[in-house]
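Summary for the steering committee. One of the milestones for this cycle was to obtain a three-dimensional model of the protein with adenosine-5'-triphosphate bound, which we needed before selecting residues for the alanine scan. The sequence and ligand used are listed below.
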Amino acid sequence: MSYLLEVSGLEKAYGGVKAVNGVSFRVKEQTIFSVIGPNGAGKTTLFNLLTGIERPDSGSILFHEDQLVGLPPFKVALKGISRTFQNLQIFFNMSVVENVMVGCHRLGNASMLSAIFRLPSMLREERLIRHKALKALEFCGMSQMRDKPADSLPYGQLKKLEIARALASEPHLVLLDEPAAGLNDTETVELSELIKKLVENGITVLLVEHNMGLVMDISDEVLVLNYGELLAMGTPSAIQKDPKVVAAYLGEE
Ligand SMILES: Nc1ncnc2c1ncn2[C@@H]1O[C@H](COP(=O)(O)OP(=O)(O)OP(=O)(O)O)[C@@H](O)[C@H]1O
Ligand SMILES: [Mg+2]
């Protein structure tokens, strides 16, 4: 069995805090792999390491057997990894489709000069990016809102807009950092359908979520982080029965 993502011995400290402390795991292609754990467990830090926003102190991240450690975020994106953020990163003065287009602009090849003079190569690229953005919006069921200003969308739609943006670059691996936070029950069900549809379309999903119902319902595998360390890893049913996990969560309350 080959793995899409192989992480080993990953470490990142901030001063005295070991945010991620010797974490290793592997993710199979076209699966939903969830990372859970109490606040401050290191989940977002792990995503920052995987996407090149932060550089690990040590450890290895293999994606399609390529080493990602040391690559800047745009090169990680070019390899086929994209993400959403725990705090919304929306440009409220732009339209919905423009917000999605941001997701693939850094993948463009047109040079600065061709952009300034609006040369044909640049216009061609702009059309292609718009086409990809519209496709991503359609995938998320948001076509009808494409020309609305982003600031007119309710919160639930903004969360989905971030997913559409992550899809516009046509990634193989998508990292979702708390996509269900702030969603109502109906929106959460829609989100879980959308995540399952991603996998049906060949995408692999890494999911950080506090909504345990959602995690246990859709994940193939669950990793539990606690104080930066891997506490447990396994199928949802095994994780739910694991006394270490139960203790960590009850201890938190
Ligand atoms: N840039 C940073 N500088 C200093 N400390 C940081 C930084 N980023 C994270 N930390 C610390 O690392 C630890 C892990 O934080 P992280 O944000 O990864 O947790 P998390 O699991 O995502 O939590 P939450 O569920 O609240 O989002 C925390 O103790 C946090 O304070
Ligand atoms: Mg976080």
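Key point for the committee: The CA atoms of residues 69 and 223 lie 21 Å apart.
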